[in-house]
Write a structure and sequence with these properties.
- There is one protein chain.
- With 141 residues, the protein is an alpha+beta fold.
- It has helices at 68-78, 84-95, 107-111, 116-137, and strands spanning 19-20, 23-24, 41-51, 57-64, 96-99.
- It has 2 domains: 1-25, no CATH class; 40-137, no CATH class.
- The radius of gyration is 17 Å and the shape is globular.
Length: 141
């Protein structure tokens, strides 16, 4: 329910982040608090890289694993009926800590990458999952 003091379309405290009156709000939602700090990340190098507006190429990257919130927001931003590749691109826009010196990464920016970079980023994400799974196997419970 929207309260009088709220902006229409803005999430309210009862519905949680990104949900308003039973529908998903397609607005940027910041990553969970501390998602970048202290999170295990994987580093890698893009095959071709990203060329910024000034013509500088950026190839080295750092990525963290997505949270469920990251995926939910990415699905909403990609839109109904979006392909898995589009949802993944929106997710990576949230989980890439950096590409070179670029730290503000958008789904549109990632859309400009060569298709070969999809496999590079997917492999880095999978390598990180394996590391975390191995590390958690040693924990009790």
């Amino acid at each position: 329910m929207t309260h009088p003091a709220q902006t229409p379309g803005a999430p309210d405290s009862q519905s949680g982040p990104g949900i308003v009156e039973g529908r998903t709000v397609i607005q940027p939602v910041p990553p969970p608090l501390g998602a970048h700090r202290g999170a295990l990340t994987e580093r890698g190098t893009l095959t071709i890289g990203y060329r910024d507006e000034s013509g500088t190429w950026h190839k080295d990257f750092e990525i963290r694993l997505p949270t469920m919130l990251d995926v939910e927001v990415a699905m909403a931003q990609a839109g109904e009926g979006a392909s898995l590749a589009a949802i993944t691109r929106h997710t990576w826009a949230r989980t890439l800590v950096r590409i070179g010196t670029v730290t503000h990464i958008t789904a549109d920016m990632l859309a400009s990458l060569a298709d070969t970079e999809y496999g590079v980023l997917l492999a880095a994400e999978e390598a990180l999952r394996k590391k975390l799974k191995a590390a958690s196997a040693t924990l009790p419970g």
